[in-house]
Design goal:
Largest sheet of chain B: 5 strands, parallel
Structural class of chain B: alpha/beta
Strand order of the largest sheet of chain A: 1-9-8-4-3-2
Helix content of chain A: under 10%
CATH topology of the largest domain in chain B: FAD/NAD(P)-binding domain
Bound molecules: flavin-adenine dinucleotide, nicotinamide-adenine-dinucleotide, FE2/S2 (inorganic) cluster
Oligomer: heterodimer
Number of helices of chain B: 8
Distance between the termini of chain A: 26 Å
Structural class of chain A: mainly beta
Shape of chain A: globular
CATH superfamily of the largest domain in chain B: FAD/NAD(P)-binding domain
Strand content of chain B: 25-35%
CATH architecture of chain A: 3-layer Sandwich
Order of helices and strands of chain A: EEEEEEEEE
Radius of gyration of chain B: 22 Å
CATH topology of chain A: Rieske Iron-sulfur Protein
Radius of gyration of chain A: 13 Å
CATH architecture of the largest domain in chain B: 3-Layer(bba) Sandwich
Number of strands of chain A: 9
Number of strands of chain B: 27
Number of domains of chain A: 1
CATH superfamily of chain A: Rieske [2Fe-2S] iron-sulphur domain
Number of helices of chain A: 0
């Protein structure tokens, strides 16, 4: 379990990048938190820098959109889902339980 | 009777057109004709990660397993040599023809070559996968690279070659690189990027000729300087692949001329991507856009025109990116000579900034260097402000 930040420092509509060997992006969608791998499955871009619309994040480089619930891209150029991770909120802190395998990998 | 649509050119614009045709309900045949033997692949990595050796051919495939459901008939390794406008049949180099009810022209562009460089080994252009494989092999055993042209190809190849440890000199005729797309002020920042990373950039200098008998040995400049070279890369622009249409009756200029909806003057024939010069309302002329996102998105408009459907909602603002020496450069909007860039965030000296180009006090374009998050927000804001082009 990785401790990310206090819930107060990740307001709705915002994203944070958690540095790690495989960096993770955590989003606040109207009070609900989601975590996915931060690096786009297409090429080299940080999804935390993308455009959040509902529970969808648009990649800042080539605009593939990923569903934060499933990790699946909605269309090209990305073909592979990003890994999703479980978020646990406890005592006002956001934690991420990192998924084991790259489940989205084709 | 089911109708047939022929897509000529099997790259980003061609594949995107085939996908858009299916998405918009065309259930007849789609025949995709491409002169390269490869299935569609992505070109941007060819000057970046693929040239550096950090991505593979598989990584840059454009197709996905879902494309199997498109049920496309591929004619790869086959060049189209003519178009008969009345029967709308596409003539192929092998003597066969594809009769179609609709034709999508998506033959892209090719690299301009330096006159007199033919037959000299060690001299490369970079447009195709085969070009990239050949250049990569040559760079692996070279020490000195001279790049002719400091445009996108020049800057990205120079950057990758520095990463590979080569000694790099770039020669550019204009006083400032990338002044066309970015303007003089921010083009000058790109010039500094070369210097930051140990690349010699010689501007305002022409090339008199290449020296060498079988293999290139040096580049001779118009001012008399002789630059020794093991490898030379020529990145002096791209030309639209439209010669094959010369006798077709399709109107040609700097590319295939189309209206805003991608329609050519020939009914049932549309054109997309790097080969097409579509009418632009804001510019008041036909503009040939040579950027990836355009080739990805524009075919949806062309498919609607061909199928008689409603065109997709407002065209997004033009966008491109470039990776140079680890700096991610992103640009969106329509810049004209005279638009004034203003740095609104970050610091040019830090190579991390966002600049907004203004015309009559209103933002018309935005450039970010290593500012993806802020850039994305600005790009969005430009959408409603810039008229569809
Ligand atoms: C090395 C490189 C790096 C790039 N990097 C970037 C970048 O970072 N950002 C960006 O925005 N853009 C970039 N671009 C530009 C982008 O790749 C192009 O805008 C895009 O490829 C255009 O797609 P297209 O399908 O219109 O044309 P093309 O990709 O040129 O494809 C046209 C296809 O048609 C084929 N063809 C031509 N004539 C015929 C014929 N007579 N019969 C059959 N087939 C034919 C060609 O062989 C080719 O396969 C880069 C381009 C290159 C070369
Ligand atoms: N990141 C990107 O967007 C990107 C990256 C690579 C390639 N591309 C595309 O690939 C195509 C080709 O790129 P490019 O860089 O060759 O074209 P370009 O037009 O961007 O740049 C060509 C440069 O060469 C210079 N030049 C022309 N003739 C010269 C000569 N004889 N000697 C020295 N300099 C000379 C020009 O002044 C210009 O600066 C374009 O369509 C481009 O958009 C795009
Ligand atoms: S890097 Fe994300 S869509 Fe290309």
């Amino acid at each position: 379990m990785i401790t990310v930040c206090p819930t107060s420092s990740l307001p709705p509509g915002e994203a944070i990048r958690v540095p790690a060997e495989e960096p993770i992006a955590v989003f606040n969608v109207d009070g609900e938190f989601f975590a996915i791998d931060d690096t786009c499955t297409h090429q080299d871009a940080s999804l935390a820098d993308g455009w959040l619309e509902g529970a969808t994040i648009e990649c800042p480089l080539h605009a593939s959109c990923f569903d934060l619930r499933t990790g699946k891209p909605s269309g090209p150029p990305a073909k592979v889902a990003v890994r999703t991770h479980r978020v646990v909120v406890a005592d006002g802190m956001v934690h991420v339980q990192v998924s084991a395998a790259a489940e989205g990998a084709a | 009777m089911t109708s047939t649509i022929a897509v000529v050119g099997a790259s980003l614009a061609g594949l995107s057109a085939a996908r858009a045709l299916r998405e918009q309900g065309h259930d007849g045949r789609i025949v995709v004709i491409g002169d390269e033997v490869h299935a569609p692949y992505d070109r941007p990595p060819l000057s970046k990660e693929f040239l550096a050796g950090t991505t593979t051919v598989d990584d840059i495939a454009l197709g996905s397993p879902e494309d199997d459901a498109l049920d496309l008939e591929w004619r790869l390794g086959t060049r189209a040599v003519g178009l008969e406008r009345l029967s709308r049949s596409v003539q192929l180099a092998d003597g066969s023809e594809v009769r179609a009810d609709g034709v999508v022209l998506a033959t892209g562009a090719r690299a301009r070559r330096l006159p007199g460089s033919d037959g000299l080994s060690g001299v490369h252009v970079l447009r195709t996968l085969d070009d990239a494989v050949a250049l990569r092999a040559d760079l692996a055993v070279a020490e000195r690279l001279v790049v002719i042209g400091a445009g996108f190809i020049g800057a990205e190849v120079a950057s990758t070659a520095r990463q590979l440890g080569l000694d790099v000199t770039v020669v550019e005729t204009q006083p400032v690189p990338l002044a066309g797309p970015l303007g003089g002020e921010l083009g000058a920042v790109c010039a500094e990027l070369h210097a930051d990373h140990g690349t010699r950039l010689l501007t305002g200098t022409g090339v008199a000729g290449l020296i060498g008998t079988e293999r290139v040995e040096a580049v001779q400049l118009t001012d008399g300087t002789r630059l020794p070279a093991d490898v030379v890369v020529v990145g002096i622009g791209a030309l639209p692949n439209v010669e094959w249409l010369a006798h077709s009756g399709v109107a040609l200029g700097n590319g295939v001329l189309t209206d805003e909806g991608c329609a050519t003057n020939v009914p049932g024939v549309v054109a997309v991507g790097d080969c097409a010069a579509a009418w632009s309302v804001p510019a008041g002329r036909n503009v040939r856009i040579e950027h990836w996102t355009h080739a990805l998105e524009q075919p949806a408009t062309a498919a609607a025109t061909l199928l008689g459907g409603a065109p997709p909602v407002a065209c997004p603002v033009p966008y491109f990116w470039s990776d140079q020496y680890g700096a991610r450069i992103q640009f969106a909007g329509s810049r004209r000579e005279g638009d004034v860039p203003r740095v609104v965030e970050g610091d040019v000296a830090e190579r991390s900034f966002l600049a907004v180009y203004e015309r009559d006090g209103a933002p018309v374009a935005v450039l970010g260097m290593n500012q993806p998050r802020l850039f994305t927000r600005w790009r969005r804001q430009l959408r409603p402000a810039v008229p569809a082009s």
